[in-house]
Structure formats: C-alpha cells, structure tokens
Amino acid sequence: MNETAAPFPERGFHFRPKLAEVFQGYSREKFLPDLGAGLTVGVVALSLCIGLGISSGVSPAAGLYTGIVGGFLVSALGGSRVQIGGPAGAFVGLVALIVAQYGLPSLLLCTMLAGAILFAMGALRLGNLIKFIPHPVTTGFTCGIAVTIFLTQVRAFLGLRMEHEPAEFLPKIAALSHALPTLHWPTALLAAGSLGLLLFWPKRWSRVPGSIVVVLLGTVAVAVFHLPAETIGSKFGGIPRGLPAFAWPQFDLEHLGGLIRPAFTIALLGAIESLLSAVVADGLIDDRHDSNQELMAQGAANFVAPLFGGIPVTGVIARTATNVRSGAGTPVAGLVHAVFLLFVLLVAAPLAKDIPLAVLAAVLAVVALRMGEWEEFALLHRKPRGDSAVFLATFGLTVVFDLTVAVEVGMVLAAFAFIKRVADTTQVHAMTGEQAALGGQGHEPVKDVPKGVIVYRVFGALLFGSAEKLDRIIRRSGGETKVVILHMAAVTAMDATALNRIENMHAKMKRHKEHLILSGPHTQPHFMLEKAGFFDALGRENVCADLESAVARARELLGRREIHRT
C-alpha cells in the first residue's frame, strides 16, 4: 500500500507514529481545523458506533467503547495523518457468529489475538504483503459483508417479533420468513422514511451529517407521536455512563483452538480495511502513509479495546473521508473525535436510550448499500472466467457461511486461477533442422543443426502448474534424437517441480545414452540449478551461454558417438 516502501522487509524494529512527526511545529492555526474536523466526524461516528455494536450481536455501549479506545489509539499510534479508527461494518457478520458460537468473552480474546497478529505483521515490515490479496477476493467479501449487514437490520427495520435471531444465513432467512406476519407498520414506515431521507439527503448540506439528522428526527418523532417503536432503552436498558473497568477477558481454554482461525481473519480483514482506507486518505491529502506503522497501531488498538469491553477495530474509509473533507490535517483530529465520543458517553449517555432501533437500522442499511461494490456483478461477463468464479465464490461463502471460510476458499481459488494462467502462458516449442534454421514465431534462426539434434525453446515461468509441459520432451526424446538442447533464455523463473522434471529428463536420457544440453539459463533459474548441484551432475561443459555454442557442443557429442561406433 505504501508505494515508497522497499519490496523486501527492512531489518530492525521501527516505531514512529505520524503524531510524533506533526507535533514538530504544531500550532494553534493547525489545531482549529483539526478541532472542527474531529467534532464533525465524532458526530458521524456516534450513531455508527452504536448501530454497529447492536448489529454485531453485542451492546450499543460496546460499539462506543470501541470508537473511543480504538479510535484514540489508531490516531495516536498510526502511520496515517488522517485515519479514523473504530468499529466497522466489515466485522459485523464475523463478530455476531463468534458471539453466537463462543460467547462475548471469547470474542474479546479473539480480538486481542488478532491485535497481536496485526502488531507482529507491522513489526516484521509485512505491510506491503497485503497488496497480494487478489481484487476478486476483496470485492467478493466486501459485497458479501454488505449483504450480511443488511440482513442483520431486517428485524429492526420491519419491527418483527422474534424470540431468537440466528447468526447463520439459512436459519436467519427461515426465521425472518416465519416472523414476517408480525411486521409492525409504524416501525417499518419510520425506518423507510429514515432510509429515504438518508439516500436523498441534499449534497449542498453535506457538512451536516445525514445520519445525525435522521437519528434526531426519528427520536423526536417517536417521542412526540408516541410511536410504539423499539428503542435502545427498551431493548438494552440504555447506555451506561463511563467506560467499563479494565479487565482481562475470562475464556474457556477448550475454545482457544477454535479462535485461531477467526482471529487471523479479523487480522487480515482489519489490515486490508485499514490500509485501503489509508491509501484513500493519501489521495485526498496528497501524502504517503507508513503501512507498517499503521498495522502496529491497529494491532495495539485491537489488543487494548477488548480490555475495556470493545470489539474489533479498523480504519474506516467513510469516517476517514469525512475527517478529511471537514478540514483535518493531522492525527489530532482523530484524537478529538475519540474524546468527543467519550464526552457523549460520560454526559449524554442517558439521552441515547430514546433512539429508535428502526432509525439505526436505516443508517446501517445505507452503510451496507454504499460499501458494496455492486458494479462488479455487471462486469462479470467482461472479466476472465477464473476471476469471476473467485468473486462469486467469495461473495456466496461470505453470505452463506462466514468470512473465514470465504477468505480461505477465495484465496485458494485465486491461487489456482493464477497457476492456470501461468501454465497457459508458458510455451515449449520444438525445432529440428530446417525449422531451427528458418526461425519464426519470434525465434531467432539457428543454422546447421545436425540430424539427431532437437532444440526445445521454453518461454515463460516453469512452475509446478506448467512444468508438466517438460514431460512432452521426455516422451518425445528417443528414436533418432541423440541430443536435446533445452534453450532457457526466455525462462523467467522456475521452482522445485520444474527442477525435478529436468533432473528426470536428464536421468532418462542418460539411461538411453542420449545427451541433454542447457542453453542460456540466467538469473533465478541459473542460481537454482547451480545450488541444486544439477550443473555438476549434467556436466558444466553441457551448460552453454547461447544456442550457437549449444549447437557446437551437440556436434562435438555426436562426433564422439561416431568415433565410439567405429
């Protein structure tokens, strides 16, 4: 994500938050824009933190704790000037599933494990490796997460009466279908009106967050018209004032093994989300973030937030963009945003009990609609079938099962698609006599190739997906062929499987008293063959710099055969 970073991990531990840099020469003139931006994004984050806490299967207070503790640490320790951290819609389905399967204490431990993984990734300078996550995988699970968020809001949006709402997709669909006859029209109309206002909120009023306007109007409407809508107070008993006491989470050791996979998924998703957000922020403020420092900050935030009852934290694109548009220039704006949320929690928490859940459902429904990259479905027919299959599989598995399974399967499918693509681009052309002299198809001509000599030109990477093409040489060698020249000047890379195929080829030809000559191996293939000791086994005189010298060596070998015959 950081384009200026070295392609290989740097040595040594480096920890330097952006906040430390901006404090050099920080002034009142810089603070005032940060103050205004922090207060604005704090207002936006207020309803989102509460709503995401509810939709994640925990409490609204847990969402606020995450925004306060996690948001503060991301801004204080991060590698971006304007990144805003907090709870994110990307985690909703996964968090709800972990809570349903293992309970809240295990979720807190899982988040702390993810924090440790993220910090280790940053400390080991692995920030750039996130860019190797294929685009179809990221877009697939992003759209799947959006559908998951939307489904979690159907109950509150329609005011359905349900004793228990399953976290899994198929049981959830069945439960929602059975509960449809209990649809509460006042609640549904309130949610629909809120949704419409959010979708069509005038752009000229964009400085006033539509989500806050909807929450305020919805709360007033319920109070004035005495609408029988479910609120935070009636559902959760309100939001307690103040942060919870610091406490290590209690957990069952039997469940620890089952938390490793979701912890890695939280870490991977948090890394992708935060670094994508940082890249977007770079474009908005013409800056470069430190991806490794950002990962360490995300790790610290995810480790500490659960100690105060928080859930997974990541950098959030929408809140970060709001921060920039509001005039933020340094991480101080993010600190102000976290302090504002703390002020609300300490002073105005009792007022939040009257917020209708239907309004929060509308807010999160809009979040889901805007986070999904829906245009990807319309472009499927224009993209390679392998990439389309990876996208659809990741999307479907995210919705039907969970994000952990989706990312694992999506990465495996993407790897297979990559292997096939590499194999398809690797070519092996055989040329003898007149064919070699004429050249063609991009091949330079080779004159005077003796009878009994065949030249194989290899183009592309010889990896395990394409190495089987060398088997053709093994099958075709024999008969009148006495010398095989394997021209490798256009081989960009090779792996152990290709090495094994070449060793087998040499062994077979040696048994049949035939000869193998390597022509033009360079760079990575040359070093690999040298290290494996193959040059010594083949005979260094049979490793030639170019085709001309390889043909000359072939004539020499054929001459020796004639001498031995006579």
Keywords:
alpha/beta; Transcription Regulator spoIIAA; 7 strands; two-stranded antiparallel sheet; 566 residues; 61% helix; single chain
Provide the gyration radius in Å.
31 Å
Helix content: 55-70%
How many domains, in number, for the residues? 2
> Mind describing the biggest β-sheet?
5 strands, mixed
**Biggest sheet, spatial arrangement of strands:** 3-4-5-6-7
Shape estimate: elongated
Average per-residue pLDDT, rounded, comes to 85
Low-pLDDT ranges: 1-10, 437-442
Find the structural class using helix and strand composition: alpha/beta
Number of strands: 7
Instruction: Calculate the terminal CA-CA distance, rounded to whole Å.
Output: 68 Å
Task: Give a short overview.
Helices cover 61% and strands 7% of the residues.
Topology (SSEs and partners):
Layout: H1 18-22, H2 28-55, H3 60-77, E1 85-86, H4 92-102, H5 104-123, H6 135-158, H7 169-179, H8 185-199, H9 210-225, H10 232-236, H11 256-285, H12 291-304, E2 314-315, H13 317-325, H14 332-348, H15 357-371, H16 375-378, H17 385-400, H18 403-425, E3 427-432, H19 433-438, E4 453-462, H20 470-476, E5 483-494, H21 496-511, E6 515-519, H22 523-531, H23 534-538, E7 543-544, H24 547-565
Helix pairs in contact: 2-3, 2-9, 2-13, 2-14, 2-15, 3-12, 3-14, 4-5, 5-11, 5-12, 6-7, 6-15, 6-17, 6-18, 8-9, 8-15, 11-12, 11-13, 17-18, 20-21
How would you describe this protein?
The longest helix is centred in the middle third of the chain and has 30 residues, at 256-285. The model is unreliable at 1-10 and 437-442 (pLDDT under 50). Helix 3 packs antiparallel against helix 12. The protein is of the alpha/beta class and 566 residues long. Strand 5 (483-494), helix 21 (496-511) and strand 6 (515-519) form a beta-alpha-beta unit. The chain has 24 helices and 7 strands. 61% of the residues lie in helices and 7% in strands. It folds into 2 domains: 31-239 and 251-411, no CATH class; 426-565, Transcription Regulator spoIIAA (2-Layer Sandwich). The strands form 2 sheets. A 5-stranded mixed sheet has the order 3-4-5-6-7, sandwiched between helices. Strands 1-2 form a two-stranded antiparallel sheet.
